[in-house]
Amino acid sequence: MTTYTARPIGPSALKELRDTDDAGRPRMPFTDDEGGAPLRCCLRRSEPGERLVLVSYAPLRRWAAETGAEPGAYDERGPVFIHAAACEGPGGPVLDGHPFTGAHRIVRRYSADGRILGGRLVEVPDAAAADQAFDEAFAAAFGDPETLLVHVRAVEYGCFLYEVRRP
Length: 167
Description:
Structural class: alpha+beta
Distance between the termini: 11 Å
Shape: globular
Number of helices: 3
Low-confidence stretches: none
Number of strands: 9
Order of helices and strands: HEEEEHEEEHEE
Mean pLDDT: 91
Radius of gyration: 15 Å
Largest sheet: 4 strands, antiparallel
Helix content: 10-25%
């Protein structure tokens, strides 16, 4: 069985984003009074009282800078929550399954040059079936030899949640 690993935003990108985001705006930290924000730095939901920052993030642009790809018009940026200060990254239950599975998600496939190859809606009938539903979606995505990476995005807002690269 293939293991598909959710990748948080990397440490060097987080360091940059905590200063100036990918839209060129300075950070504006706040205290999350309610909790529940999906944190892309550690792939878990925030707890009440944690200090967060909402930043504009361009995941495909940063991946393209690492690989030399040219995503062209597919280079998009959007809002993501991260801790306002450095954190330990993913840990705990997220390592035993896929993060942020409590709602319908889109698994969007990308080629080596950064072009969108398609997407798939992942509908999760119940929490017990979530990991299997995502594993099936990732297997289908990487079943296409053109797919190099996928982004998991929220349906309701289109926000980037995490990346999975070809195993």
